[in-house]
Specification:
CATH superfamily of the largest domain in chain A: Metal-dependent hydrolases
Number of domains of chain A: 2
Number of helices of chain A: 15
Oligomer: homodimer
Radius of gyration of chain A: 21 Å
Domain Amidohydrolase-related (chains A, B): 53-393
GO molecular function (chains A, B): hydrolase activity, acting on carbon-nitrogen (but not peptide) bonds
InterPro entries (chains A, B): Amidohydro-rel (IPR006680), Metal-dep_hydrolase_composite (IPR011059), Metal_Hydrolase (IPR032466), MTA/SAH_deaminase (IPR050287)
Strand order of the largest sheet of chain A: 6-7-8-9-10-11-12-13
Keywords (chains A, B): Hydrolase
Structural class of chain A: alpha/beta
Protein name (chains A, B): Amidohydrolase
Chain lengths: 428, 428
């Protein structure tokens, strides 16, 4: 079990969607005093068999609805992939399609011990409904650009989705500097000031993006956006691969989050984010999978290994970044970036968003160091329970969501047939 | 099911340790004719439920006995890690210790669909016994260097372990150029000529190693070893990270295998192997995990993603290397490098070394392209059956090996306590 950074043997009690107690198992007086009839009645008791309970992973950048495009057009140059393969299909997707495709993503998140995601995609209402339906936590972020959504829609979603369900919230955001006009960006910065709210966006993902912004405005995306007052109330960037020391200084000074997406940056050949520079400058780092078209899986274990491994490769230094630091990025830092202040650690009063890791599988033996085992050797296979808001949604390979996987697979296959065409029997 | 490169719906029949039939399910005349009483009696029939049967992964470079040192001393500079942490513990290991530690590795291999490994470590006899005991296939390779083993021992193992058990074989090899004197290397090259046999070794893993060889002999390790006649009968190198065009030309001309180990090269900050250069030059590439102290897990799915992802990063080209090519490296090429000519593909007469991949988990949906799903989204979680030599050793999370995991964990924990010391309760 985890409390802050420590691991100890004990018990966690859950009531409703919150953690009631974390400790060695003695009943505290205040809890005993309020028990009806002074006795404790449990709905369910789970023997953890010396396995690890820890906070669920926070996937701090994804586009859930892109499950349709997994393995659809890989191993192509970035421009051809995006403009000729991805965008034409996305243009045909309906809100109902994205509802089903997001539900497919939820199943996958649960198998990787992800209890909340930071989702940016096309149809916020239907995405929120999908997560509500599946019982999973979702923080959405504005995806406005010159071609879809609008500042008015972002404001409307900000006002409505933050009060719709305990599982949903919404943050200000826009797609990226390179897909938004200056006036559009000024309107988003205006919303940040109006609501004193943080803003998130794709930032410095590719060399081309940075070069384009320099050409347009004579500045890096970070410097340009900061100059608009975009980050006066915090927020941060997804990817943050091609960053200057001045960019990093701005992030440090403004308390911004760098959400790193190493799987996607690797597969799309975008580069390696300067994670060690972020850490040195005190910039908080969180981790996201990015969408399933660019990764292609939604697996925080793979991302954690990539964060630490690519940092070592980049610095040519096997001692670069410590495993425990990466574990914090994937849990505590993600929660904080996403505004989920009650989903960061396992403590009384916090949300019961937690997972159980099977320490009795061979990749977790011996137990020289459990955090290092998790980051270097851990796999989705070790996730034997995923709980969101006190409800077990996945346990020992079985989903306890409102909808069965088979039904979701059937529906997403139909969407695939409608938008892409039937998969041939020999689909190589 | 896989036959060569294709995927089709059908059946695979197994008799003894071999595949009897692969096809649509009609009984061929020659098989029918030899049936006793002209009827087929199956010991066991498995409904694959439209899941994928494919050849097991071949882990083409590992040091199984190093499981003890997983998470023991990570995030340290390479020299400190190796000389001050790893070597002192290894010096204390007995053959019996390595027997148990290798059995622990076998459990992990099975969970990742690995059906055979190419193992280089300290005590070949006890390692072979461990694999025999667990029912798993193991090709060992000589690890001789200035400090342990000898050419005589390599020759003795070559003569004995190649005839001991259908699951074991042994190839000529030595640890590395930098740990062997010139006269020792000449003796190994002599054995290669005596037996007309291929030789494998660690090769060009780090910049330092190549610089050292240049200083000693004025040549790269590849050029120097080739000049000794080391590879006149084939073989290859593990790692092969820092290779000149001339090195690659030698490999191509001699038909050598480059066994890439991206997880280890990443974690130890050694660099990115020039996989696209190998492919362009026609050098055959296989994939290995390296040992669990330097990776730290024994997971071919992670390695496959790293092979393709790091190639794209290195070339700054998202189209570098195709997923199907990587799948071949992890199966067919590995088998060929290891001399397992009958364990490469699923065909009648080949060894029944195969695995079942659950295509009904969310990371495998939709099925736009199954090979790409495997390489980009696949995980150990998808491995629901691992069969070696016709015997199911792992199915749906349960091990059917001769020894239970609990017993092996207990024994390896005792070795840890003996060699490293008791793990504190709060082992962070």
């Amino acid at each position: 079990m985890c409390e802050g950074e420590g691991i100890f043997e004990g018990e966690i009690w859950v009531r409703g969607d919150r953690i009631l107690y974390v400790g060695k198992g003695e009943i505290p007086d205040d809890i005993y005093a309020e028990m009806p009839g002074k006795c404790i009645i449990w709905d369910k008791e789970i023997d953890c068999k010396k396995n690890l309970l820890m906070p669920g992973f926070k996937n701090a950048h994804t586009h859930s609805g892109m499950t349709l495009l997994r393995s659809f057009a890989d191993d192509l140059p970035l421009d051809e992939w995006l403009n000729h393969k991805i965008f034409p299909i996305e243009a045909k997707m309906t809100a109902e399609d994205i509802y089903e495709l997001s539900r497919l993503a939820v199943l996958e998140y649960l198998t990787s011990g992800i209890t909340a995601v930071f989702d940016m995609y096309l149809t916020p209402k239907s995405i929120g409904e999908a997560f509500d339906n599946m019982g999973m936590r979702c923080v959405q972020v504005g995806a406005v650009n010159n071609f879809s959504q609008s500042p008015e829609m972002v404001e409307e979603m900000y006002q409505t989705l933050n009060h719709k369900s305990p599982l949903q919230s919404y943050m200000l955001g826009f797609h990226a500097e390179y897909t938004c006009s200056k006036s559009l960006l000024e309107q988003i910065a205006g919303l940040a000031h109006k609501y004193k709210a943080p803003v998130f966006t794709h930032l410095a993902e590719t060399e081309n993006e940075v070069a384009g912004c320099r050409k347009r405005y004579g500045m890096t995306p970070m410097a340009f956006l900061d100059g608009l007052g975009m980050f006066d109330y915090g927020g941060g960037g997804y990817h943050c691969v091609h960053m200057t020391p001045e960019d990093i200084e701005i992030m440090s000074r403004k308390g911004l989050y760098a959400v790193t997406n190493p799987g996607s940056n690797t597969k799309l050949a975008s580069g390696i984010a300067p994670v060690t520079d972020f850490l040195k400058a005190g910039v908080k780092v969180a981790i996201g999978t990015d969408g399933p078209a660019s990764n292609n899986c939604l697996d925080m274990f793979r991302e954690m290994f990539l964060v630490i491994g690519l940092a070592k490769l980049r610095e040519k230094d096997a001692s670069a970044v410590d495993a425990l630091e990466v574990l914090k990025m994937a849990t505590v830092n993600g929660a904080k970036a996403m505004g989920l202040k009650d989903a960061d650690v396992l403590e009384a009063g916090k949300l019961a968003d937690m997972i159980m890791i099977d320490l009795n599988q061979p990749n977790m033996r011996p137990q020289n160091n459990i955090p290092k085992n998790l980051v270097y050797s851990g796999s989705k296979q070790n996730v034997v329970m995923t709980m969101v808001g006190g409800k077990i949604l996945y346990e020992n390979g079985v989903f306890y969501t409102n909808e069965k996987p088979e039904v979701i697979y059937q529906k997403t296959d139909s969407i695939l047939e409608k938008l892409i065409g039937k998969i041939p029997d020999e689909n190589t």
